[in-house]
Amino acid sequence: MADKKPKASSVITLGGKGSSLSAASVFAVANGLAQVEVSAEEVGILDKSCACLYGICGILDYESSALSTIANVVAAMSSEASKADVGALNLMDSGDGLSVKDEVGVASDLKVLLNGSKLVGKVEVDAVSEIPKIHGKIRWG
Questions:
Q1: Which of 92, 94, 64, 78 is nearest to 128 (CA)?
Q2: For 45, 52, 96, 128, which has the most beta carbons within 10 A of its beta carbon?
Q3: For residue 27, what pLDDT is reported?
Q4: Which of 8-12, 24-28, 41-45, 48-52 shows the lowest per-residue confidence on average (mean pLDDT)?
Q5: Torsion-angle region of residue 135: left (phi > 0), alpha (psi -120 to 50) or beta?
Q6: Around Cβ 101, how many Cβ atoms within 10 Å?
Q7: Burial of 139 per CB tally in 10 Å (0-12, 13-18, 19+)
Q8: What distance, in Å, lies between the first and last C-alpha atoms of the chain?
Q9: pLDDT tens digits, residue range 56-89?
């Protein structure tokens, strides 16, 4: 299967008057469509504030794990609402040890959430089959 990841095509700047940070730019960076540009001044600030940065990362780690659970529930509800075929979730773990652990974990969570649902159907929705891959990237440990 060919890798569908596009190459980065734009640069996101942080801070100052030229800041281009928005929801769309965060999405672009997360999906490899853009790169973040950090100025020399910002690098100096980061060098001097590593302890603070570790604290912030710890908070983000904790909060994102709760957010990923909510995102999985919303994805399951969306799958039901669109009457999507969720059969692709059963094919995630090949059993050979070469699967991506987080993607398999998300697929397993979705299967548990959708177990017994009479609302999922046979409509092929590409976005639903990509949920484990996308949510697996934000899943922590």
A1: 78
A2: 128
A3: 79
A4: 8-12
A5: alpha
A6: 12
A7: buried
A8: 27
A9: 777 877 777 778 888 899 999 999 999 999 888 8
- State phi, psi for 13 to the nearest 5 degrees: -105, 145
Look up residue 84 and give its amino acid. A
What pTM value is reported for the model? 0.55
Give the whole-angstrom CA distance, residue 54 versus residue 107. 30
Under a CB-based contact definition with an 8 Å cutoff, are residues 46 and 14 in contact? Answer: no
CB-based burial, 49-83: b 16+ in 10 Å, e otherwise: eeeeeeeeeeeeeeeeeeebeebbeebbeebbeee
Return the number of other C-beta atoms located less than 10 Å from residue 28's C-beta: 19
Sequence length of the chain is 141
Contacts of 59-66 spanning 24+ positions with Cβ under 8 A: 61/140, 64/138, 64/140, 65/139, 65/140, 65/141
Give the C-alpha separation, 79 to 107, whole Å: 12
